[in-house]
Design brief:
heterodimer; A: about 290 residues; alpha/beta; Elongation Factor Tu (Ef-tu), domain 3; Dihydroorotate dehydrogenase B (pyrk subunit), domain 3; 7-stranded mixed beta sheet; 15 strands; B: about 325 residues; TIM Barrel; 8-stranded parallel beta sheet
């Protein structure tokens, strides 16, 4: 835990397909951030009726810009909070808490990696790709979305990866279908030893299933709705089975957002599975 | 003086007016009246990134139960106008882990721990009180009685004066006399003063007011309740007028009873309203989710606004809104 709270400032807000890209001057946050971590932004201004922060994966950081450390996030307008953010202008104040959450773990030795992103879930994968390349790991990218305008970071991926495979469900870009349709071929071609994925829960479940089929470890960054982002509210929990075999309801904000894929009980998300630590025990029959 | 060079002190800090901020919650003397709120600060550790837990009057920890508890399925949270609903289901590690990891951590840092306990039967509350007896760092117990009583068809203790009184009497009997026992009251009752009187008669040393209000949100896309638990507790600025009204009514009826006031406080002026209505101290709860450093900010702002109004000590302001109207005019 090394988050700070800073009075940040908007450097730019711009469209990118169906999404918005926002660069914030947030001194101290950029310097501390690691790939996979996120920031929590206050929305609506000082007298806002929106009492909760909005959490966004960090897309890029610049530690020493002209304006000091900057953090870039990508978001879709889903509700009033993100709509408010999309209407901000340069120099508008935004209170930033970050960096938050457990980052991606990096391999100790060079190993071929495949990075899979769904929608704007690909955002945290580019910082990861840079860190992997620094460690001389081969990086192959698979990026998918419902339609071409919902793909994020195709140019970044093309620049950073040995190969890039793009899928869209409607066929408006790349191959028609889902990332899981092309993943086996990419895994074989790249002789991958490790997977990383970020995106919607059904996509993560499919990627982890493929990883298991190939016997590969897979780190996933989940997108759960959060109230605080710092670990005190207990709203963003998921059933996670630890190395000890016990399932616990863990907070995606501090125990995640990055989890080992095989430990996430994807089929049971949204429930408290039987046998979870502290779960209600059915009355024993006499 | 030339306007080109401005000399600033190394620590540019607004100086606060001299106000004695110390307060008492029954036998517990606190250096200042701003606390965290149960369920909004975990056990203080996460917030230590943003402020020193010892800087507050105390850290009110998340309600702990006897055994580990998984809580409810998700979704557990919904943002509402100027507030939020939560339906966590008291997820927690259980008292043993709390005593191993959380309470010692607070004690080591010199933070004063107000430990919130929750149970589903009188026996469970008593067992918790016994486990906490003599623990270093324990400044006060806050009894969360907004729990279903399994021995009474799930009726919530806080809504039944007799059940609430039984729990408080049993805990008071098993708790060291130097540790005050506060009952945390639910505003979802017809007669808050009646419940307050019942728990005070049963031996409570004071009252925490108020817990969340029961509410719900319907998801218009799925056309079902949004929360997995259907209903949830409403908190945040939306409930502040209700919470203030409860504090006002109870202080009016029982002016000597120490009250830890809470419900939607996010500024020093909000805290001042609770103090003027009769609270001796306040908890900052939901505001922490939006602004993790808010408790120390509220403390600073409260000192400022007390000083601006000519108060030399917090004690002079407690219940000040109840003073008789001066026939000569403003006073």
């Amino acid at each position: 835990m090394n988050a700070i709270q800073v009075a940040g400032e908007v450097l730019s807000v711009r469209r990118s397909g169906a999404y918005w890209l926002m660069t914030l001057v947030a001194p101290g946050v950029a310097e501390r951030a690691k790939p996979g971590q996120f920031v929590a932004l206050a929305v609506g201004g000082e007298h806002s009726s929106m009492v909760l922060r909005r959490a966004f994966a960090i897309y890029q950081v610049a530690e020493r810009g002209v304006y000091g450390g900057t953090v870039e996030v990508v978001f879709a307008v889903h509700g009033k909070g993100t709509e408010w953010l999309s209407r901000l202008h340069q120099h508008d104040p935004v209170n930033v808490v970050g960096p938050l959450g457990r980052p991606f773990r990096l391999p100790a030795t060079p190993v071929p990696t495949v990075l899979v992103g769904g929608g704007y879930g690909s955002a945290p994968l580019f910082g990861l790709a840079a860190a992997l390349s620094d460690r001389r790991c081969r990086v192959d990218f698979v990026i998918g979305a419902g339609s071409a305008d919902r793909l994020f970071g195709v140019l970044d991926a093309k620049r950073m990866a040995v190969t890039l495979t793009v899928t869209t469900e409607d066929g408006t870009a790349g191959e028609r279908g889902r990332v899981s349709d092309v993943l086996p071929e990419v895994l074989e071609r790249s002789e991958a030893g490790l997977l990383y994925a970020c995106g919607p829960m059904p996509m993560l479940r499919a990627v982890v299933a493929a990883a298991e089929e190939y016997g590969l470890p897979c780190e996933v960054a989940v997108e759960e709705s959060m109230a605080c982002g710092i670990g005190v509210c207990m709203t963003c929990v998921l059933p996670i089975t630890g190395a000890d075999g016990t399932t616990r309801m863990l907070r995606s904000c501090v125990d995640g957002p990055v989890f080992l894929g095989e430990q996430v009980r994807f089929d049971d998300v949204g429930t408290v599975p039987y046998g979870t630590l502290g779960a209600p025990v059915p009355l024993a029959s006499a | 003086m030339s306007g080109d060079v401005t000399l600033r002190p190394a620590r540019a800090r607004i100086s606060l007016p001299a106000v004695d901020m110390s307060t008492s919650l029954a036998a517990f003397r606190a250096p200042n009246p701003v606390f965290t709120a149960s369920g909004c600060a975990a056990a203080g550790r996460e917030l230590a990134q943003f402020f020193d837990p010892a800087d507050l009057g105390g850290i009110v920890t998340k309600s702990v139960m006897l055994d580990p508890r998984s809580g409810r399925p998700t979704p557990r949270m919904a943002e509402t106008p100027s507030g939020m609903l939560n339906s966590i289901g008291l997820q927690g590690p259980g008292i043993a882990a709390f005593l191993d990891h959380d309470l010692p951590w607070l004690a080591e840092r010199g933070a004063r721990a107000v430990v919130s306990i929750a149970g589903s039967s009188v026996d469970e509350y008593v067992a918790l009180a016994l486990k906490l007896r003599g623990q270093p760092g324990l400044a006060m117990l806050e009894v969360n009685i907004s729990c279903p009583n399994v021995e009474d068809r799930g009726q919530v203790f806080a809504c039944d004066p007799r059940a609430a009184a039984r729990v408080i009497a049993a805990i008071r009997e098993k708790t060291a006399p130097t540790v005050p026992v506060f009952a945390k009251l639910s505003p979802d009752v017809t007669d808050i003063v009646g419940i307050a009187a019942a728990v005070m008669d049963a031996g409570a040393d004071g009252l925490s007011m108020v817990n969340t209000l029961l509410g719900m949100v319907v998801n218009t896309a799925t056309m079902r309740p949004l929360l997995a638990g259907v209903t949830g507790g409403l908190s945040g600025p939306a409930i502040k007028p209700v919470a203030l009204r409860c504090v006002w009514q109870v202080h009016r009826a029982m002016p000597g009873v120490p009250i830890l006031g809470m419900g939607g406080i996010r500024t020093g002026l909000d805290a001042l309203e609770f103090i003027l209505a009769g609270a001796c101290a306040v908890s900052v709860g939901t505001a922490v989710f939006g602004d993790p450093s808010s408790p120390v900010r509220v403390l600073r702002e409260l000192q400022q606004v007390l000083g601006e109004r000519g108060f030399r000590g917090l004690g002079e302001a407690i219940g000040y809104a109840h003073r008789p109207t001066d026939p000569q005019g403003d006073a």
